[in-house]
Every structure is written in C-alpha cells, then in structure tokens.
Amino acid sequence: xxxxxxxxxxxxxxxxxxxxxxxxxxxxxxxxxxxxxxxxxxxxxxxxxxxxxxxxxxxxxxxxxxxxxxxxxxxxxxxxxxxxxxxxxxxxxxxxxxxxxxxxxxxxxxxxxxxxxxxxxxxxxxxxxxxxxxxxx
Length: 137
Hints:
Elements: E1 7-13, H1 19-31, E2 35-41, H2 49-57, E3 78-83, H3 86-91, E4 98-103, H4 109-112, H5 117-135
Parallel strand pairs: 1-2, 1-3, 3-4
Helix pairs in contact: 1-5
C-alpha cells in the first residue's frame, strides 16, 4: 500500500491571533489529506473574535483553535515555514526545522481598514497565497 506523505506546513506570526490562524484554517480546508497545517507566534495572544467571524462567513469554524508559541514547536520538523507578517520574519528569519521558508507580507487586518473589512481582505489574500504558492506551486 502506497501512503502519500503529508507535507507539514507551519505558519508564523507575532501573536498567532489572526493571519497565521486564518492560514492554518485555509490550508486544513483546501489542502485536505495532502497537508498538515500548524501555526504559532513569537508572542501568542488569544485569537481575535473577528477572525472567527470572517472565517465562519466562508464556512470554516476556527472556534476551537488556540494560539501557540513557537517554543511549542521545538523538536518538530516542517517541510515549509511561512511567515505571514514582517514582524515575524524579522523575529524568526529562519525556522531551522523547516526544509523551505516563505515570507508573505500580509498587513495586520486590524489596521488595514475599519471593522471586519480588513479581516476579510486578509482572509482572501491568504487564501490566494495558499492556492498559488502551496497548492499549485
């Protein structure tokens, strides 16, 4: 029996409260059994309620997701590590336990625009990056 190897992807951000959580949710949904997605932050904070709301709008329930610290990932290997904010890229420019690293400069949805629209824009941008750079490279 030939079992396909799942590609392990880690999304990194400062607080692991918005962008990296959305990316984890998208890859789990879009990537199916081919991927194992995780996320973490350099300074974890609770997941923003706006994230739960805008992801629910597209049929993804992140209500059970929890913020995690990069230290929680120690000892784990990943095929790809993706920083989704400039601050995370500067704070952890190399995740040494990843075979490949990517950097996506996605603006903080809380400052993108007022209200939920900034979170929707970030959500949609992240989906596009996942489809273009991870699912169909």
